[in-house]
Amino acid sequence: MTSNERLALVRAGLSARHRREKRFRFYGIAAIVLALGFVAMLFAMILSRGLPAFTQATFSLDVHFDPAIVKVDKKPVRSSEQSPAEYAKEISAWERKVTMVNWNKVIEAAVRNAAPETTANSREILSIVETNARFELRDMFVADPALLGKTVPVRMLASANADNWLKGNIDRSLPDAQQQLRDPARALADQLMAEGKIRNAFAWHIFTNVDSRSAPASAGLAGAFVGSLYMILVVIVLAVPIGVMSAVYLEEFAPKNRFTDLIEVNINNLAAVPSIVFGLLGAAVFINYFRLPLSAPLAGGLVLTLMTLPTVIIATRSALRAVPPSLRQAALGLGASKTQTVFHHVLPVTYPGILTATIIGVAQALGETAPLLLIGMNAFVAQVPATPLDQSSALPVQIFLWQGNENRNFFEARTSAAIIVLLGLMLTLNAIAIFLRSKLEKRA
Amino acid sequence: MNENTQLEAREMHMPTEKIVARSDLYEMESSTVRTPDAEQRPVRVTARNVSVFYGPKQSLFDVSIDIPEKAVTAFIGPSGCGKSTFLRCFNRMNDTIEGCRVTGKISLDGGDIYDPALDVVELRARVGMVFQKPNPFPKSIYENVAYGPRIHGLARSKADMDAIVESSLQKASLWNEVKDRLHEPGTGLSGGQQQRLCIARAIAVSPEVILMDEPCSALDPIATARIEELIDELKQNYTIVIVTHSMQQAARVSQRTAFFHLGNLVEEGPTDLIFTSPGEKRTQDYITGRYG
Fold first, then answer.
1. Phi and psi, residue A265, nearest 5°
2. For residue A38, what pLDDT is reported?
């Protein structure tokens, strides 16, 4: 074969090789475009649905605490000969009387005052105001009895149905029988909106209120958010030290034998166990055996810790394995003991890796729903847990619950809003992790 | 300890086949120890009948040698001849390799270093080591040098530590280059500076013996020359054992040379004698470049 023949052979194959290369690149780019397209679609859908839920139709009304409706005595004042118990009794009797007041009448009067010519009856008027507005008025009055006889501006949420109507979530052309609000009520809502007495205001209560079924418009995420925070805390406090220590022991100290091989295989398998199985385990061990309270963030956090441990262990081990042996030799050669070598030199190098693994694990745990359902965290809980032992919900479970709420067209947006909050929390966690990692890497 | 080190160590002993093929010209015999002449120095380290096994494979056969005090002893030989393995016996770094077994006796100042009662941490404080590739800790220059004294509790105060760091860096002739940036990372130095930092780190613990495992193999000729100068200065105070691939380096820096081949100590003696009139044909072939 002459050199020319050889060259011809090489050339003949060249174009095919280049084509293959181009094709492969195209596949890669296509895959990335496809993936990004789906992500963009997901975000667009969540944002377009969820963002409107962050504003809600809100009344700004002048409420007159009419003495003709609010017929209660003066708030009792403690006299000198009264014992504290007697005084408390008297106060609670007074508060009971305040509660018995027909606050709905006060609200109706305020709405009528804003739209005097309305044809809506009192039932229809009240159907556009959130049902818990009366309790808010009561609480205002209890806090300040001097309001009696005065007229003050008050902000009240519109009911979920009114909010839907005003936001156009309901087809306006539907016949009366299929509408959630009756015709006069719809007309009244439109009129108040046009006059600026109902406005779309930012719904702070999503972050400060707990879940509610009787007053869906006022339902918020506070309980679920705090519950999730408690669980993250439990996961970080337990999974990180236990996971890192296990990994350090297995990687640096444990003898290599059948038993440690078996442990390694099992840890790898644990990472692939469906999360609902951890939920079953949690129900059997933490609830049934250790008698931890149902629906408590502590029990949830423990289950999520079990789920996160394999992730942390595996990632830490691979981070430790990536540490160059020369670093260990340097420390050992100087006379550092094995423990000193690991803790002074090897482990610090792996912090960025461990941190990343932890954040991935925690983010995974944060979004986990299935195991929590099995330990009772899908219960309806209308309180912010004060301690990790109190009953609570969690963000993904709250999403699950709202998604299944029968007031569909209101809670669809609410569900997306909750997803936005959950994603926001995850992004925040990731941002913190990236910040810490770049800081740690700079130090090293 | 970990697979990488083990692999590395295994690899060092891999290319034996080639050497066997070439050396079957020679009859295998146990080490020939020539009597040291003119330069009579007190002996610091003695090794007697040292053999090393990696699992079932024997890598070092019955090596006996005396290391004189305050002098440079060079171990030379082709790759895989066991010289690094032997060097690592002196501070028991072989302990860290799983499946590695050392038999025979090595004593430092008369004390057996493989005595089970002896603390290996203490031994390594007395026998420092400089590695083939510069391996400073990913910490500041100051911390690199201060680490040894700190874990061994050698400095009583911050001022003490500063003094140790300064004198160590000065002895490693690095002080002038780094005195203004002691708190910058040691990994930011050039290769030669890093290796001198590693030497400073080793001498900060005031060891009696310094082991150097091909300390210049990753460096350019200029950096190599500086390290060689440094070794020459250090031998005033320290007993130095150096493993090297370069025969010129051995000739330049060492007072005694030991030639290893296939896990055997072939010949050992004053450097000039080894290089001018070796007693063994294998040694002569190696130093004249006929193999290796």
1. -60, -40
2. 97
A326 to chain B: nearest residue by CA?
B135
The ipTM value here is: 0.80
Amino acid letter for position B280: E
- Asked if B280 contacts B262 with a C-beta cutoff of 8 angstroms, the reply is no
pLDDT surpasses 50 at B263: yes
pLDDT tens readout for residues B206-227: 899 999 999 988 888 888 898 8
Q: Please determine, for residue B3, whether its predicted confidence score (pLDDT) is greater than 60.
A: no
Q: Is it the case that residue B13 has pLDDT exceeding 50?
A: no
Sequence-ordered list of residues with C-beta below 8 angstroms from that of B251, at least 6 positions apart, any chain: B257, B271, B275
- Write out pLDDT tens, residues B135-173: 999 999 999 999 999 999 888 899 999 999 999 999 888
pLDDT bracket for residue B28 (50, 70, 90): very low
Going from the C-alpha of B223 to that of each of A93, B60, B217, B218, B238, the distances in angstroms are: 93, 32, 10, 10, 21
Q: Report the DSSP beta bridge partners of residue B103.
A: B51
Q: Are residues A373 and A266 in the same domain?
A: yes
Read off the pLDDT band of B39 (50, 70, 90).
low
Q: Where in the sequence is the domain holding A346, given as residue range(s)?
A: 222-443
Whether residues A113 and A260 fall in one domain:
no
**A357 and A313 within one domain:** yes
Q: Are residues A317 and A247 in the same domain?
A: yes
Residue B61 makes CB contacts below 8 A (sequence gap 6+) with B30, B51, B263, B264
Residues A133 and A186 in one domain: yes
List chain B residues with CB under 8 Å of A331.
137, 147
The CATH number of whichever domain residue A382 belongs to comes to: 1.10.3720.10
Cβ within 8 Å, pair B202-A334? yes
- The total number of structural domains that make up chain A: 3
Cβ of B135 within 8 Å of Cβ of A327? The answer is: yes
Q: Residue by residue, what is the 3-state secondary structure of B93-146?
A: HHHHCCCEEEEEEEEECCEECCCCCCCHHHHHHHEEEECCCCCCCCCEHHHHHH
Q: Please tell me whether residues A19 and A62 are part of one structural domain.
A: no
The domains of chain B, with CATH numbers, are 3-287 (3.40.50.300)
Of A329, A336, A349, the CB nearest to B131: A329
Regarding whether A109 and A25 lie in a shared domain, the answer is no
